[in-house]
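[retry 2/3] Acyl-CoA dehydrogenase: previous attempt timed out, resubmitting with same input.
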Amino acid sequence: MKLQFNQDDEIFRREIASWLEENLSGEFAPLKFRGGPGDEHMFPEERKRWEQRLAEGGWTCVGWPKQYGGRGLTIEQQVIFYEEYARAGAPGRMGHIGDGLAGPTIIAFGSDEQKARYLPGILSGREFWCQGYSEPGAGSDLANVKTKARFDEAAGKWLISGQKVWTSLAHESDYCFVIARTDPDSQAHKGLGFFLVKMDQPGITVRPIEQITGTSEFNEVFFDDAECGAEDIVGAPGDGWKVAMGLLGYERGVSTLGQQMAFQNEFDEVVALARDNGAAKQPAIRQRIAQAHIGLKLMRYNSMRMLSGDKGDGSLQREALIYKLYWATWHRELGELAMDILGPEADILAAPPYELNRLQSLFLFTRSDTIYGGTNEIQRNIIAERGLGMPREKRW
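[retry 2/3] Acyl-CoA dehydrogenase: success.
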């Protein structure tokens, strides 16, 4: 595990920091610190243009191999990129799902034709992806999906029917990678396929889900014989679970360090508020601030340890299994701390149009952190069964 960076890495840090300072100006200045969790509905078109600006500077897909248009950065340099991106207050990435999940998965498991078709649009910042995993009756239990895919021999296409839920930014996406059951008689993780599906077609309906924040970045997505080309299944029918697990490894990968820098920005805002309104003088608040600081540092060190085992194929060491549970719980507690520091102001909005302030939005959104991406309960099962080798939970 490396906790320090060499001289070349620090030169690279100055390069990306300088580029961000220069480019987060003019039309992109209003995007600073916008578009993150709980704020993803803001400035979608402007953030798409920002993706294209990143692409022009060569700052999309920085970890992809050079042969696919990426920068081929080392793990250390990728960590620096994500840290500096968040430190600069650069906006939430509209291209994150394609850049960090769909692209690496296609590179690792896809055909040459799939790479040629889909990677350039992600790299250029012009095509955007969403994730079709969770379902109303399955939640975090990915192996319990009911969405079906049947192959129409006459048309030479897969036809997908079912429903996905909590699909982030589906209404802004061009494509969706979908887990569906290719064998109707299969159960659990067997008989699944991993499909690359075009969103703009008659067989797909997207409905927004309004949250307690009043925003609707999540959606329900309905598939009614949605078409997917025969060439657009990644791997073979039945390989869906293997591909999906590889993708989840990328989700726990190097971009987590950027997430932590965003957490650092939020933590700094909470501390500044405590100093300004006098809450920092309260011993109990000071203790909770100290605990949050320690938790954030531990999160970083464990991530560095976790990334030290990155093999480039989505597989990570067992330490990666605790990451989602840890950060989701920490972030939820930070939201609660922010409300306690705000005091009575946490419960009121001063004047029309009664928009939530940043810390109120933080608190409300963090209520979902321990649910999406795998609930805390599911995460504990994964840690027990896969990490510790304990007996599997009984299925009723």
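[retry 2/3] Acyl-CoA dehydrogenase: The chain has three domains: 7-94, 129-236, 252-387.
[retry 2/3] clearing retry counter.
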